[in-house]
Amino acid sequence: MNFFYYLALAISSLVQARNTEQGIVTNTELDEKRRQVQLELRELRERQEKFERRQFERQKQLEEKLAAYNREMQLLVANKQRETALQTAEAHKNWENWPLKNTASQVLEGRHGNALIPLLLLISPPEVDFDRFGDLVQFSPLRIETDLNIGLRTFINQNYNLQRSVRPVKFLGGALKSNPFHSESRIYALFSMLSSQPTLVIESQVNGDYLNFNAAYWGLGQKKPFYETILDDLNHRELIFKLAKRRGAEKPSQEDIKVFGQRLVALHCLVAGWTADAYHLIHHDVPPLLPQLLSDLIEQLVPTEEFRTVFDEASNTIIPGYQQLYEALRAERPSWSPELMLELAQSLAPLPNKSWVREQIHNAVKLWLEQRQMSEFY
What we know:
Strand content: 5-15%
Number of helices: 11
Largest sheet: 5 strands, mixed
Structural class: alpha/beta
Helix content: 55-70%
Shape: elongated
Radius of gyration: 30 Å
Number of domains: 2
């Protein structure tokens, strides 16, 4: 039954030959007609390609405009919500269960028209009973809160400064009240007044020897806050005693408590940096910064011998999150997908594992060629 296969090959070769060969018999008039048709066909194809390129560029422009209008619409809605919240806040100045030491109007004031809205950052430090560790009464929860505020403020001022026009973050250290009003109840109370203000809240809760870290976030136009556990059942007592043993001591010292505090600072910076990147990427079209800062943060979190493992784990955690964000942008602006992939690759370039970068570049080049019907060149 190979007959049909070989016959098909022969017929295919005839089709190819009639498009490329002149034939044995020369016919000047026929040759001229063939050349004229070939010329017209080539011109038609060139016009079609130019038209498609113009259409594609127009499509990209329209997608970019639509994305900008969507962001502008979110800003208008947020400003309207802010006006309503300010009026409501004035009517509830003495609200006993308000979770902040500042009034809602104090938090919302200072925004003007279409100015870029910063991300508000609030933290609830852990209230660890250090008396249980021995003679460490000097290290009260207030000291941990002070160190945490200083460390986080330094990180924000250096990388996400409120006074800059790119990725601003408004950090209000010490703003959250210390009372039984916490977790979801506190977050929804904040959201009821501050829904127009993009916000990140990092909570640290102590349960005996264990620490739990939770985070709440909402951005522009969000209908309800996102609230999730970041890390649970972290045995802080065991961690501090391990720090003492590394020094060859049986009991923890003030130095060990200080190192513990530095690791809390690094963890808070990691969460704050990623969330600030996510907010400003989605709402202000600004690429991520945290991958450039990750190495220094991980060095604060773990000893040298554990650095590489924890660094890789942190990278493998945050990178899929960035990919998910860029997929959302690509769905909004599909024609810009190659450029967005390359932007993500450039953001991830500082990380030592280059496989993520290579993957983005590979997919960007492939898609760029497909968009222009040139995939055969890849």
